[in-house]
Amino acid sequence: MKIAILLPRSVIYPSLSFDIMDGFKQSLNTMGLEGYHEIVSAGIGVAAKHEEIYDHCEQFLLSGTDVIIGYMNPLAAEFVHPLFESTGKTLIVLDSGYHFPKFQKLRNAWFISLQGSLCTRVIVQKAIEDGFRNFAFSCSFYDAGYRPSYVYAAAVEEKGGSIVFNHITSLRRADFTLKPLKEFLEKEPETAVLATFCGDMAEDFFTASTGMTGNCMVYGTSFTSDETWLNKIAYPGYDWSTAVAWSGELQIPENRVFVNTMNRMKEGKANLFSLLGWEAAQFIGLENTSLDGMIISSPRGRVSINPENGFTEAGVYYATVSKDEITGNCILRDLEAASLTESERKGLENNIQSLQNIEANTWLNAYACLES
């Protein structure tokens, strides 16, 4: 089979495209399929220009490509899908879970998702179970354009809580400040913080939040606790809670194989993006071109394709971010399967449906893909 991979770029994840490709190839190698498929690729910038992605897909399909894989948002997938429907070929979308689809199902497209919005609902439930009802929401200007910011507010309201303070940091990194948030928490110490930041923006948040919390708690989204960045961030002086799709610390046999295989190439090569590539290879295998109903044993556990919407479904994990006593930086610990994942998945479906017929702004970049 001929397989094309559409690779984006990001200044905060400079190895992103290499990680996806390496994860895909190493997974094939592990299955004994090294050299079995013809693999080609093309760069798609930050995956925000739908017409550019369309042109690449069209050229690949004209040259006899059977499967195209790309890290992009569901809106881009919907834009290019007519090409796949008309040719009968397969589109596999690597998805952060930070966008909402506008469609019910695309016949020739399947989505391998990191379930970012589901993790957001799960961590809100954890905060509610911890006894909090009032929340301060804090995010970067960039993160405000993705769906976890909406999911936080919707989930809190559904569960009987309130967002009582909103704090969005400046677009310019030089203007970054948490002063308004700190001042509010000093007056309302029983308020918990719901945060969504990624990359260097997460680093800025936790650096500036040192000594901020007092008696309150911080809860973060899945990319806020991504280990690629987390392990570089100095411990802020307090532990905080998160929900994640995957961690290098997950103790299951499939994850040990994945982590050992990828990190033999380079330390840190086992990450969220190489995981997406690894899973794509698992789903394709020898020559799978229809993924409906498929189940794989992934490094993150059991992953299945929901035939009703074409998205993967998997468990998510609670985790605690604490101090690595060796480095003094942050580390992800105490992973535990979130027991209410499936009920939160139903809640997320309702959140998605509520926005499908509403004009709601969003960044088009694939999440975490930035040029500057």
From TrEMBL:
Residues 63-284 form the Leucine-binding protein domain. Belongs to the leucine-binding protein family. Keywords: Signal. SUPFAM superfamilies: Periplasmic binding protein-like I. This is Branched-chain amino acid transport system substrate-binding protein.
